[in-house]
Amino acid sequence: MSRTATDRVRMSVSRYFASNRLEARAQFIDACDALNLDFSSYYAPKDVDDSGEPIIDVARVGPHKAPVVLALTNGSWVDEGLCASGIQTALLREGLGRIGRNDIALVLVHAIAPAGLSGLGNRGPAISDTSIREWSNHALAAAENRFASYVQETHTPKQGSGGIPWQARVLCEIADAYFARAQSISLIDLRTGPGFYGEADLLACRTHSDPRMQRATQLFGTAADTAEPTPHGTPGDLAHGLITALERSDLTAAVLEFGTYSMRSVLSAGSGSVFYPDTTDWREQAWASAQGVIQHVLLSLPKSGPR
Questions:
Q1: Are 119 and 113 in contact (CB under 8 A)?
Q2: Cα–chain-centroid distance for residue 94?
Q3: Which of 6, 140, 195, 210 shows a CA-CA span of 20 to 30 A to 16?
Q4: Taking 70 as the threshold, does the pLDDT of residue 305 lie above it?
């Protein structure tokens, strides 16, 4: 490929990485529209977010009844959410979203630090850690009786009714709408953090159906030295809550974390988005890493139900 062609590809990919929520959502929705994809939008109660904008958009590529589903989520914070949004949009724009197998669906859960569901800002929460995590604890408790509670309500329950936190209701609605028919679900949470510039670490997560991460390490290719403790990934708040809402599903999960700067650089930075570099080369490297991982997972996904 000529230098000019290479530069054109690089520019076309880096432009999908937006600088703010509104721009990122607009690009994602435009990419969905270009492929004639249906998507659903979810809102926070007005007393939590009165902007009138959705806090989560979910799109599916592939059959509605696909028995195998791969989901991509957007971490917790604004900076990593913007990175993940760029990757999701690039997936749709650059053709990887067109899945060759008719038994697989790709579900993109697009959310950038959604109000009430994550920390706010660029690694600088505006509320206490206790408040940030409170919804997760409630979701865990609600998930115990999620089906019984959900059936008692209509499929469009009033937010705040029935004693179940609205966050748990949103997550259960997403679970029912996009994952209820899946026999096997794989989830990758896209995050950023300290590390080698532009390089990606893929870490398996513990789930209810894979507590020892054995299937996850096989699927994601993250098996480590057996003589050492197996490292595991920590999903963001939204992914964690969705994993909880899918507790009755056959589920494997992992975190794909893109390195930005060294820990020393992160700690010494006074301000700025050290977890979302605005350089073309970093965004190109992040996309290339994500593309390779997602292609590998799509090829490795089981061809039938639970193992």
A1: yes
A2: 19
A3: 195
A4: no
Measured distance between the N- and C-terminal CA atoms of the chain, rounded to whole angstroms: 42
- State the SS3 of the chain: CCHHHHHHHHHHHHCCCCCCHHHHHHHHHHHHHHCCCCEEEECCCCCCCCCCCCCEEEEEECCCCCCEEEEEECCCCHHHHHHHHHHHHHHHHCCCCCCCCCCEEEEEEECCCCCCCCCCCCCCCCCCHHHHHHHHHHHHHHHCCHHHHHHHCCCCCCCCHHHCCHHHHHHHHHHHHHHCCCCEEEEEEEEEECCCCCCEEEEEECECCECCCHHHHHHHCCCCCCCCCCCCCCCCHHHHHHHHHCCCCCEEEEEEEEECCCHHHHHHCCCCCCCCCCCHHHHHHHHHHHHHHHHHHHHHCCCCCCC
Mean pLDDT of 204-219: 83
CA distances from 217 to 6, 214, 239 (A): 34, 5, 18
Average pLDDT over residues 194-208: 88
Pick the CATH number of 3-201+217-225+233-257+281-300 from 3.30.1560, 3.40.630, 3.40.50, 1.10.3470: 3.40.630
Whether the full predicted model's pTM is greater than 0.90, yes or no, is no
Say what the pLDDT of residue 11 is. Answer: 56
